[in-house]
Write a structure and sequence with these properties.
- The complex is a heterodimer of chains A (224) and B (252).
- Chain A is built from nine helices and no strands.
- Chain A has helices at 13-46, 51-66, 69-84, 90-116, 119-127, 132-162, 174-185, 188-217, 219-223.
- In chain B, helix 4 (120-133) packs across helix 5 (149-161) and helix 5 packs parallel to helix 6.
- In chain B, 38% of the residues lie in helices and 27% in strands.
- The two termini of chain B are 35 Å apart.
- The mean pLDDT of chain B is 92.
- In chain B, strand 4 (55-60) and strand 5 (63-64) form a beta hairpin.
- Classes of the chains: A mainly alpha (224), B alpha/beta (252).
- The interface between A and B is medium-sized, with 22 and 28 residues.
Chain lengths: 224, 252
């Protein structure tokens, strides 16, 4: 069988792939929001003076970082449904699974960035009579967010790539769309190259977008 | 105004403040001198409770800060009350600690707007006035990384003044500055002193101490070893340790 990349565009294959891509992008995006919000709270929680909060957050990190995403997805979708009669739709299980997994990594990014800010900043805020929380929101976090962006970019790209695992819990995302096409025409090489290019385009856009955001949020960028 | 009574502070086994007491009256300028490691910065930082103490009491205008006595035991006061007292004590740091992500003007405006919830317009007016006072009216829209060390420190002073503090604490305010920038910061501090601000200053600038201080306090080894008017301390100190320290510092 000679290579023929035109198969990507035959038999509605391309529109099927684009539909899959849309599901990939939208589910990744929702997972990303969950991951950032949850990751922020867990990262802050790990630094809490309340022992039980920081302990709880440490456990969260240890569990979700210490077990494979694929296993977590299986538990969420098949495990909960069959073992505990908790039926989550594939999309809900997918977003939850991806988001909670990624939040573990984001929490470490958040914690690292906050702890990298000079402690004189917190002292200055407190010496002016601002509370710990207010200083965190007005002084520490705005500076920390900038330092979070490069590692967050890594994490978002990893999240996009990890979303291909959702194909095993029947989410009709890009990988699954490709698998379906391949099972009909056996054009493994052409279709998977096509999928790879689509993933690449999404991830490349993420890195360019975050690069621009980084510049815009930098002190130099704000002045311009 | 400030009353420090028999405080003790340790970092683990290291006893950095040993039974230190110090009173500062309204309008007084007290300069703390001493060799490095003598505990002078730590004592200053205790006065707005950036450092916790293990024993003793610190009062600002009769109100305790940080450690309070409850049922005969020392306990930490609630953070909210601590914030209230800190708002009345201005602090200037050796490394400025300006907020790098906002302009000079916003550095000055942030605390009053956050803590006292003052309106933007009136806060901006106050901030511009304060920046004019420290000679930086035209630098209001600059970011900290565009300012020289001396300018940063003057913005930091304006930032502390924006809370209308009753006391200003200076922790080696000129130690991180190039020699030619020291004068502009000291000039602002002299002006403040002349206006009657109560000030406690940790510094190695003996010229400033001699000229501006009402009292000079010498610390060594975590204790306060001498306390007196600058004329006496600089010309005829009682303690040989003070004499030895001053002869080293003043000889160059």
């Amino acid at each position: 069988m000679a290579l023929d990349f035109m198969v990507i565009f035959e038999d509605n294959n391309f529109s099927a792939l684009l539909e899959g891509l849309w599901v990939t992008v939208s589910m990744t995006f929702m997972a990303l929001i969950l991951s950032v919000v949850l990751g922020l709270f867990i990262g802050l929680g790990r630094m809490s003076k309340q022992k039980w909060i920081s302990l709880l957050c440490s456990w969260y990190l240890a569990w979700f970082r210490g077990t494979p995403l694929l296993v977590q997805l299986m538990i969420l979708y098949y495990g909960l449904a069959i073992g505990l009669q908790v039926n989550l739709s594939a999309s809900v299980a997918g977003v939850l699974g991806l988001g909670m997994y990624s939040a573990a990594y984001v929490s470490e990014i958040v914690r690292g960035a906050i702890q990298s800010i000079d402690k004189g900043q917190m002292e200055a805020g407190r010496s002016l009579g601002m509370s710990h929380g207010k200083t965190m929101v007005k002084v520490i976090l705005p500076q920390a967010v900038r330092r979070m962006l490069p590692p967050l970019c890594n994490e978002f790209i990893a999240l996009t790539k990890n979303s291909s695992l959702l194909s095993v819990i029947t989410v009709s995302e890009l990988m699954r769309a490709g698998n379906l096409i391949v099972s009909n025409n056996f054009r493994y090489f052409e279709i998977y190259i096509g999928i790879a290019v689509l993933y690449f385009l999404v991830n490349y856009s993420i890195s360019v977008g975050i690069g621009r955001l980084e510049h815009k949020l930098s002190v130099e960028g704000r002045r311009a | 105004m400030i009353s420090v009574k028999r405080i003790h502070k340790s970092y683990g086994n290291l006893h950095v403040l040993k039974d230190v007491s110090l009173n500062v009256e309204q309008g007084e300028v007290v300069v703390i001198i001493g060799p490095s490691g003598s505990g002078k910065s730590t004592l200053l930082r205790c006065m707005n409770y950036l450092e916790q103490i293990q024993e003793g009491s610190i009062e600002i205008e009769g109100k305790p800060i940080g450690l309070i006595q409850k049922d005969g035991r020392f306990v930490e006061m609630p953070q909210k009350e601590l914030d209230k007292i800190r708002a009345e004590v201005g602090m200037v740091f050796q490394n400025f600690n300006l907020f790098p992500h906002v302009s000079a003007l916003e550095n000055v405006m942030m605390a009053p707007m956050t803590v006292k919830k003052t309106k933007r317009e009136e806060t901006e007016q106050l901030a511009r006035e304060l920046l004019r006072k420290v000679g930086l009216a035209e630098k209001a829209d600059m970011y900290p990384d565009q300012l020289s060390g001396g300018q940063k420190q003057r913005v930091a002073i304006a930032r502390a003044l924006a809370m209308k503090p009753k006391v200003m604490l200076f922790d080696e305010p000129t130690s991180a500055l190039d020699p030619e920038l020291v004068g502009e910061v000291l000039a602002v501090m002299k002006q403040l002193a002349a206006e009657g601000m109560t000030m406690v200053v940790v510094t190695h600038e003996m010229g400033f101490a001699r000229e501006v201080a009402d009292r000079v306090v010498m610390m060594d080894g975590g204790t306060l070893i001498e306390d007196g008017p600058p004329d006496k301390i600089f010309s005829a100190p009682d303690q040989p340790r003070t004499q030895a320290f001053l002869s080293k510092v003043l000889s160059h």
